[in-house]
Amino acid sequence: MVKRLKRAEGHLRSVIAMIEGRKPCLDIAQQLHAVEKAVAQAKRTLIHDHLDHCLEETLGPLPRDKRGSVNEFKEIAKYL
Q1: Tell me: the pLDDT tens digits for 14-66?
Q2: Is 20 exposed, middle or buried (0-12, 13-18, 19+ CB in 10 A)?
Q3: What is the DSSP string of the chain?
Q4: In this structure, are residues 62 and 70 in contact, taking their beta carbons and an 8 Å threshold?
Q5: Distance of CA 17 to the CA centre of its chain
Q6: Distance between alpha carbon 10 and the CA centroid of its chain, in Å?
Q7: Which residues, in sequence order, are CB contacts of 59 under 8 Å at separation 6+?
Q8: Which structural domains are found in the chain, ordered by start?
Q9: Hey, which of 4, 67, 68, 71 would disulfide with 42, CB 3.0 to 4.6 Å?
């Protein structure tokens, strides 16, 4: 997750430099999109990690037949 956030940080620094350098709006918008994607991926990683480790730690190891609802939640979490 840190790697993804550092990538977002690098993209954000680029956006700031581009704005200060008066670069074209299209180029800035593309970089901002990259920042958003990197942050969204970090958030998704955090949620999946929570489900895989923290939730299982609290409930105990889930049998294979009970993992379906956790896996389904992981899938739906991509729309957050």
Answers
A1: 999 999 999 999 999 999 999 999 898 888 888 888 877 777 777 777 777 77
A2: exposed
A3: -HHHHHHHHHHHHHHHHHHHTT--HHHHHHHHHHHHHHHHHHHHHHHHHIIIIIIHHHH-PPPGGGHHHHHHHHHHHTT-
A4: yes
A5: 23
A6: 15
A7: none
A8: 2-77 (1.20.58.1000)
A9: 4
